Amino acid sequence: MSDPILAFITAFTLVYFAIPSIINVARKKHLMDEPHDRGAHAVSVPTLGGVAIFAGVLFSVVMWTPFQVFTDLQYILCAFIILFLIGVKDDLDPIRAWKKLIGQIIAASILIFKANIMFTGLHGVFGVEALPYWICVLFTMFTILVIINAFNLIDGINGLSGSTTVLICATLGAWFYMVDRMELTILALSLAGATIGFLKYNFTPARIFMGDTGSLLLGASCSVLIIQFVELQDSMSDSRFILHSAPAVAIGILILPLFDTLRVFILRISKGRSPFQPDRNHIHHLIIDIGFSHMQATGILVVTNVLFILMVLTLDSIGSIPLILLSIGLAMILTNSLHQFRQRKRKEIDAQLKKEDAVRLYQESPKEAHEFH
């Protein structure tokens, strides 16, 4: 266990001490995220936290990974570098969504065709095991792109994307350690360590954001880990740590970013808008609009994700389809409740504003107030 722990400490230390310098440089060079109508911050904040996360993960993984075991690591790092360059470009000079998507497809292609990060079937979902090669390629491509963009889209309030990443990496890293896959344990714990180092400066009041540079890397890393998590089940038929509903457990582990992304995409498409057009319909926006702070919303969502993970691990034996339906159904019920609370809150605010307007109008002119009523 020494190497994974050292990987965690190395990534954490590098990021923790690198970010203050990045903040200073970003302020001097005016590389800031300015407040806007969809944003949750009221002051300019540096956006290059992802640079430190990338450096911490890259250094730690290269330092502590046994390359003779993880022979495909070079290709994974190549894919990460492509996403890093796209993220830096977008953080410094925003690029169109379709250009980012092309870069993501290239990175995903490297993971699939060179690093052999790919689903080989549905692992019993709908009774299907193996699938034709080209269907596996398309399904894996879709999964990677969804996860990458999911982490990018939930990065809307302080600490949320980073905290979710730490939770997911800790869960998967623990499982990889128990099945003696040290190379994947090192990757998971390096990402967790780097992200924790970043979170010190991202919790409210945030001194830096991770930007696309960070969120794209987090999404890509988690997609690699989750695909390997599902695929390894078939090679461990005699292990006591094998999961009977691995695809459903994987969805439960990623429930927050996956469900929120698919939900807002469906909402936008149903309204005739581009799925990539930003709005304030994310789950974290619903919680904030009810009246919670950034850190309260982050805490609520992370705890909820923890409960989903415990649920799917506990109910692993019921089968993938029932467990997937249970997870999605519960997520829909909880989200719909939030939506109802927000609608009620807005009505209360509108009623209060109308009352205040009536009182102010009466004080200014009783005659006009009588006509107002």
Which structural class is indicated by helix and strand composition?
A: mainly alpha
DSSP strand content: under 5%
Query: In terms of per-residue confidence, which ranges show pLDDT below 50 for 5 or more consecutive residues?
Result: none
Radius of gyration equals: 23 Å
Q: How can the largest sheet be summarized?
A: 2 strands, antiparallel
The number of E-state strands comes to 2
CA-based shape: globular
Q: State mean pLDDT (0 to 100 scale).
A: 90
Proportion in helices: over 70%
Give the count of helical stretches.
Answer: 14
Terminal CA distance reads 73 Å
Q: List the strand order in the largest sheet.
A: 1-2
Counted up, domains total 2
Task: Please trace the helix and strand order, writing H or E for each element.
Answer: HEEHHHHHHHHHHHHH
Brief descriptors of the model:
mainly alpha, single chain, 2 strands, two-stranded antiparallel sheet, 1% strand, 72% helix, 373 residues
How would you characterize the overall build of this protein?
With 373 residues, the protein is mainly α. It folds into two domains: 2-340, no CATH class; 347-372, no CATH class. The chain has 14 helices and two strands. It has helices spanning 2-28, 49-64, 73-92, 97-113, 133-154, 160-178, 182-202, 211-231, 246-253, 255-270, 283-290, 294-314, 320-364, 366-372; strands at residues 32-33, 45-46. The protein has a two-stranded antiparallel ribbon with strand order 1-2. Helix 1 packs parallel to helix 7 (182-202). The chain is globular. The protein starts with a helix and ends with a helix. The relative contact order is 0.12. The model has no long low-confidence stretch (mean pLDDT 90).
